[in-house]
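Supplementary Methods. Inverse-folding protocol.

Structures were first reduced to a discrete structure-token string of length 153. This string, shown here, constituted the complete conditioning input.
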């Protein structure tokens, strides 16, 4: 059982999303962030002739790593849950992962690290797509920040 799932299982209040599905998304995002960071670094270690062809891939890797990392953190927080913000963050991660999967996919046959990264991105797309429909604001999950954790003015 992942740490994400263990932490969700010990959360003292109700969580309006299926914990297993949420943990799967968090774990996929974390793994993708690591894979994208490593892929960008591997791209930088390729031959000098390959570098111009890898520039977009490196940029997409780094963007995806940052967005996935942030999204995993947002999905790990439930106090004062804001469904609209969470949904927007998940949509941003979906776009970043799709772009990176496409970019790495262009180099997957030549660079194994790009193939692995594209696979990690595809897994994020699948996990977030499954989760997205469950992030709709409802009567149980306020679309504006809740009053369970008042902000200090």
């Amino acid at each position: 059982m992942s740490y994400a799932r263990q932490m969700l299982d010990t959360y003292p209040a109700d969580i309006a999303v299926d914990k297993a599905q949420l943990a799967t998304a968090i774990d996929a995002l974390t793994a993708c962030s690591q894979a994208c960071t490593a892929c960008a670094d591997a791209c930088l270690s390729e031959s000098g002739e390959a570098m111009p062809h890898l520039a977009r891939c490196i940029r997409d890797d780094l963007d995806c790593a940052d967005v996935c990392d942030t999204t995993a953190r947002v999905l790990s927080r439930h106090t004062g849950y804001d469904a609209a913000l969470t949904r927007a963050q998940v949509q941003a991660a979906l776009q970043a992962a799709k772009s990176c999967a496409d970019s790495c996919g262009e180099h997957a046959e030549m660079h194994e690290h790009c193939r692995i990264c594209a696979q990690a991105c595809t897994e994020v797309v699948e996990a977030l797509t499954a989760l997205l429909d469950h992030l709709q604001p409802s009567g149980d999950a306020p679309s504006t920040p809740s009053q369970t954790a008042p902000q200090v003015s």
